[in-house]
């Protein structure tokens, strides 16, 4: 770090978060600091911030591969016998190689004719929360934080997931259904990266904050579609994320589960809701 122009004033293991080291520096070159950590510590979880972390007033999170361990549309594709084809499109979109809306409409179109009973079965047998997800959401709520699930996926999945994990509000896409089957279309506007960012800004404005300044916020996500939201939040934490999302965030979790977010914010384990 010193060779890159980042001096170390102190490096201390936190007593109340025993797995967490706090590194203090009078310099603000986050790129050099992160490169040094990546080079010498291997797989880590981290947060780079100018001030001592505090409990955010708003928490907004992506769903697929962030709050749950699956990509819902890929799992639905398996019921249609098209998982490999759909998953390839999903991966390319998450890497930022494809236009999100175009990729979404293409994948949904491939599901035309699939019975809605497949959604119910998929939810019951395949969709599982990420380790630590409910602890993270419920702890932040207890500490006075507003919790919002925003997804480029679908309300058919997001609503029950939000209820399971404790989110207070949900923003997502709506699959069009006719006669108990998917039509291959969507109802209403598309939740893309701009909508995710706008949702965060609207939540902040509702707390009397215009322009994203003054109210502390937290965002978690893993793909290119999450980048504007991650960049806008006070703490944008990329969770086991694609390279572009990780690079755009000031926080990252590559090692632990979602309770690592609480550790990075300095919230003692005694205050966690288990």
Would you write up a description of this structure?
- The protein is of the alpha/beta class.
- The chain contains 11 helices and 10 strands.
- It has helices at residues 30-41, 72-79, 83-94, 100-110, 117-125, 133-142, 155-165, 193-206, 227-232, 243-248, 259-264; strands at residues 10-13, 21-24, 45-47, 58-61, 146-154, 169-178, 181-187, 217-221, 235-239, 251-253.
- The strands form 2 sheets. An 8-stranded mixed beta sheet has the order 3-10-9-8-4-5-6-7. It has a two-stranded antiparallel sheet with strand order 1-2.
- α2 packs antiparallel against α3 (83-94) and α3 packs antiparallel against α4.
- The longest helix is centred in the C-terminal third of the chain and has 14 residues, at 193-206.
- The protein is globular and about 65 Å long.
- The mean pLDDT is 94.
């Amino acid at each position: 770090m010193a060779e890159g122009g980042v001096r170390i004033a102190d490096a201390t293991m936190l007593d109340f978060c025993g797995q967490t080291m706090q590194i203090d520096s009078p310099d603000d070159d986050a790129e050099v600091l992160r490169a040094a950590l990546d080079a010498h510590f291997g797989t880590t979880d981290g947060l780079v911030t100018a001030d001592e972390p505090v409990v955010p007033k708003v928490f907004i999170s992506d769903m697929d591969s962030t709050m749950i361990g699956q990509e819902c549309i890929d799992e639905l594709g398996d019921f249609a016998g098209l998982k490999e084809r759909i998953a390839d499109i999903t991966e390319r979109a998450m890497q930022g190689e494809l236009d999100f809306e175009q990729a979404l409409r293409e994948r949904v179109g491939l599901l035309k004719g699939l019975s809605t009973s497949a959604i119910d079965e998929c939810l019951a047998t395949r969709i599982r929360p990420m380790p630590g997800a409910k602890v993270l959401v419920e702890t932040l709520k207890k500490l006075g934080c507003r919790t919002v699930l925003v997804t480029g996926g679908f309300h058919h999945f997001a609503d029950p997931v939000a209820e399971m994990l404790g989110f207070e509000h949900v923003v997502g896409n709506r699959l069009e259904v006719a006669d108990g089957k998917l039509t291959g279309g969507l109802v209403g506007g598309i939740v893309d990266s701009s909508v995710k960012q706008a949702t965060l800004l609207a939540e902040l404005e509702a707390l009397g904050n215009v322009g994203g300044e003054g109210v502390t916020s937290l965002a978690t996500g893993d793909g290119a579609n999450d980048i504007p939201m991650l960049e806008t939040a006070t703490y944008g934490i990329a969770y086991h994320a694609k390279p572009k999302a990780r690079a755009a965030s000031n926080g990252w979790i590559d090692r632990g589960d979602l309770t690592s977010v609480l550790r990075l914010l300095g919230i003692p384990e005694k205050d966690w809701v288990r």
